[in-house]
Amino acid sequence: MSFLLCVLVLQGVVIGIMALILRGLLNRMLLDQAVRYLQAGSDVQTQGVNVVTVQTASAAGAALRQRIQMAVCQRFPDSVTIDFQVCKKIRGGAVIHVGSHVIDCSLQDRLERAFHKK
Residue 94: which CATH number? Predict the structure, then answer.
């Protein structure tokens, strides 16, 4: 009986660790996609944009900030400022506001698209 309990507990721990790893990988993929879309998004207007707002689930790390700053510098005038915000509604990925255009690479958006709720 105790052997079965140990196996079940160990199985739960392994599943939990795998879920954390997959969530981290998915978050990284969504963030990469947001940066690539910001770099190449031809439908994003660059004229008259003063602020680019980047919303993420947790504080953006230095590497992500640098990648976004490089992408913004390549596409927008020097006068554009980048506002990094933490938004608890976003569970993963990022939502980037460029003027009136929204680049939604959040986990919630992807789940809604997958289940055709949006």
Answer: 3.40.1260
At position 57, the amino acid (one-letter code) is: A
- Beta bridge partners, 83, equal 53
Instruction: Give the predicted TM-score (pTM) of the model.
Output: 0.74
81-86 and 51-56 beta bridge pairing = parallel
User: Token digits for 42?
Assistant: 């031809």
CA dihedral 31, 37, 38, 40 (to 10 degrees): 150
Please give the residue range of the domain that contains residue 31.
2-114
- How many folded domains does the chain comprise? 1
At 1 the pLDDT is 64
Alpha-carbon gap, residue 86 to 91, rounded angstroms: 11
pLDDT (tens digit per residue) in 42-83: 666 667 778 889 999 888 889 889 988 888 888 876 778 899
